[in-house]
Amino acid sequence: MEDKNPSSNFIRNIVLEDVKTGKHDMVITRFPPEPNGYLHIGHVRAIQLNFELADEFNGKTNLRFDDTNPVKEDEEFVKAIKKDIEWLGYEWENLFFASDYFEEMYNRAVLLIKKGKAFVCDLTGDEIKEYRGTLTEPGKESPYRNRTVEENLDLFERMRKGEFEDGIKVLRAKIDMTSPNINLRDPILYRISHATHHNTGDTWCIYPMYDFAHPIEDAIEGVTHSLCTIEFEDHRPLYDWVVRECEMEKQPRQIEFGELNLTNTIMSKRKLKKLVDEKYVDNWDDPRLPTISGLRRRGVTPEAIRSFIRETGISKTNSVVDVQMLEHFVREDLKLKVPRTMAVLKPLKVVITNYPEDQVEMLEAENNSENPEMGNRKIPFSREIYIEQEDFMEDPPKKYHRLYIGNEVRLKHAYFITCNDAIKDDQGKVVELHCTYDPETKSGTGFTGRKVKGTIHWVDAKHAIPAEFRLYDALIIEDETTNNAEKTFLDKVNPHSLEKIQGFVEPNMKDVKPQEKFQFFRHGYFNVDPKCSTKDKLVYNRIVSLKSSFKIE
Ligand code: ATP
Ligand code: MG
Hints:
With 553 residues, the chain is of the alpha/beta class. It has helices at residues 10-20, 41-56, 75-88, 102-114, 125-131, 149-161, 210-220, 236-245, 269-277, 292-298, 302-312, 323-334; strands spanning 28-31, 60-65, 95-97, 118-121, 170-173, 188-192, 206-208, 225-229, 253-257, 260-262, 319-321, 340-341, 343-344, 347-352, 361-366, 376-381, 384-388, 408-411, 416-424, 430-438, 455-456, 459-460, 465-472, 498-505, 517-520, 524-528, 538-544.
């Protein structure tokens, strides 16, 4: 049977082979976040890969919180991660916590001790590091390596009972201190930590290390393909050792794939947490962050994220993808879905001197010129309107087709107007324009009398609603001034990543809902901020601007 799946990748090929040869009746995958922060868009590569693989082969995907480090983990993160995965549109089969297996893990560790494959070690952390050796030198065996099984069992039990302070003892695997793979040089399996765990409270004061816990978790759940990022490639022999020596019934297979990173941002929970804790950003859902909650608040849709991630593919090396590619998918997704309306971000008042004083007319405007199904709306027009400050120039350069004294432009959905006069304040700043309109040129009447080169947008001054617009720029600047070994990522944070401006939107925006999205003519796509926007003060986040030079090959 020929396989024509366009999104095929090397992991899918392995799974396909395993299904064909009948190695597994059912494909089981898991997404195993540690609840020590919020998910970011890099995680979506792992989420999509796990969920869509299992789905394709009628398998299952579990969500498992890898909560083996109580000091950094929190219930807040558990909730946020669940919400994000659901929002992305993925449904897990079972919800598991690694901490539910602590007893089983303890028993497996006891089994290792009984088999002479693990020992309690009293070396300090620094000594263990020193004894470990380097890539070019073998390690040295711990003086505690040859404790008897009885002694090890007794000490491990007393570790569990809380007889020792943090760091006094660890349980280590007994493998090979001369192995070329440093991960196999008697790695630590358990450490003492008198910390309260978000799930198990104070039941435990010893906690398993990732390399010991993860394979056991996978095996308990019958995970067939355990997918992780490439940094764990060198840990795979240890993963297999744990599965084998702990005599796990099921043998999961670890397969590694390359991480996804984006330009001009940070993709590590640890660093993101620092930005949040040190108030560089508002919170985990700050629209500048690449967190799922930040992207959601900014207005990026799950569809756009999923299409983007799919396009980046799966490979064996880490990749850095241009953030413009994500923006491309955002525009593609919103293009036909959202209404196109007008907003003036930096207003300049225009008085149309030949328009009757008390007249208001309702003009017909299409909601989306590329999607007629979105219908029309009515917008008021009267003697005073706002346009963008930058749509008028006193001394325009050549090819400037917008307003200047004596020039005529089209007002989108309305009339042609000609600029006659610019009123200035004491400082010489233009504060108001006087224009005249030509009633013959009304939009939609088929006027062909003459052409104008510029079309500008506007809102009716009397009816427009004030609004705040939040424009975002790169969070992290990578250039020759910041790409310097002495600089940390905090030195690269762009101090101008957020600009808040006060302008106006069309009056039909009065009942907008949080997360409602619009294209504002010439400005880009905007989202009603779910946190800050209220009936009395509308706040819009710019999701993306309209244009990009980015092209998908
Ligand atoms: P971070 O380094 O950002 O804190 P992590 O790897 O420590 O991430 P986990 O909670 O362990 O975070 O991640 C859950 C899963 O997501 C893991 O399987 C991990 O390999 C994967 N993952 C994390 N970051 C990325 C990324 N940038 N690209 C692809 N997969 C990722
Ligand atoms: Mg990590």
